[in-house]
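re the bet — no i am not wrong, look at it urself. input seq straight from the record:
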Amino acid sequence: KGGMIITNPPYGERLLDEEEVKSLYKTFSDVYAGLDDWSCYVLTSYDDFQKIFGKKADKNRKLYNGRLQCYYYQYNPKK
């Protein structure tokens, strides 16, 4: 039981426009909401990810993918 999601979804830099990115992140949030015993790790440069995802990350780190500033968000399983 349980599982792990590791994703580097489109940020709107090369693929998708901003509205498509928002829609993708909202859909991802809706799917993840039903996975209480799963952890999730996300790498994105999208500044408002947590706001659209609707959850504050358990861990949040700023890092770089080449010259592009990105964020690593870690969501632990709900207890």
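see?? The chain has a mean pLDDT of 90. told u. also The radius of gyration is 12 Å. so pay up
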